[in-house]
Amino acid sequence: MNTSSSFRLLLPTMLTLLVTASCITNNLEDASETIQEVRGQVLEVTPRNVSQFETLKIQAQDGQIYQFKSDTFTGFTPAHIKEHQLFGQTLLVRFISRDGVLVAITLED
Fold first, then answer.
1. Per-residue DSSP letter, 35
2. What is the pTM of this model?
């Protein structure tokens, strides 16, 4: 194999590594937002679409009320969240605070 053939094979690999490294850096910046969690009863859910909610309001076990927004699918559909409300089942919400807004990351039973 000559030098130009080696370079042609090496170049795509190097580009892939650079792109991957830049993605990892972005993820580390996002990770600086502390993930918190709270468990509580669902008071209200407002759907954005069939798979995402716009807002979710829960009352924690200590009585404090939290209102969350979502950016993406959090693991439960609005219909499933509504079932939790109707049957009095609690939800565990993992979230971050972004510019004073609580953003739900994941929901669990």
1. P
2. 0.70
| 103 membership: H or E segment, kind and range | strand 101-108
Could you report the per-residue pLDDT of 10-39, keeping only the tens digit for each?
Answer: 555 554 544 444 444 444 445 558 999 999
Could you please report the per-residue DSSP string of 80-95? Answer: HHHHHHHHT-EEEEEE
Return the SS3 of 15: helix
Cβ proximity of 93 and 109 under 8 Å: no
**What CATH number does domain 36-108 carry, 3.50.50.60, 2.60.40.3140, 3.40.50.920, 2.40.50.140?**
2.40.50.140
Model pLDDT for residues 44-84, shown as the tens digit of each residue: 999 999 999 999 999 999 999 999 999 999 999 999 999 99
Torsion angle of C-alpha atoms 98, 80, 66, 41, degrees rounded to 10: -150
